Amino acid sequence: MKLMILIVPKKESKRIAKMIGDNKINFLTTVPAHGTATTEMLEYLSLGDIDTDLLLSIVDDADVTNIFETLEHSFDFIKRGKGVAFTVEINALTKLGYQFLYQQTETKGALE
Asked: Is 0.85 topped by the overall pTM?
């Protein structure tokens, strides 16, 4: 399992979240990420718009390639200004990060 982290323009957030959810993902949360990054940092990360969302999702290793390919083909994700996507191993999370994700899962489960 991996933690997939995406920083995407707010206008694309719902479409990308739906695509990730279509891959039978058990956990996905979206956090508004209006940042204060410098223009240089935004350019370095290929983010043209500071009105972004942060998507956090726990994905199976086997689904990562498919999700990245869909981001590339359906959302032109490689083009400048489309966002940033990467994964980290779940065991690379700190205890605090894991607790946050666990609390988000519990909160969403209680609301459903």
From this structure: no
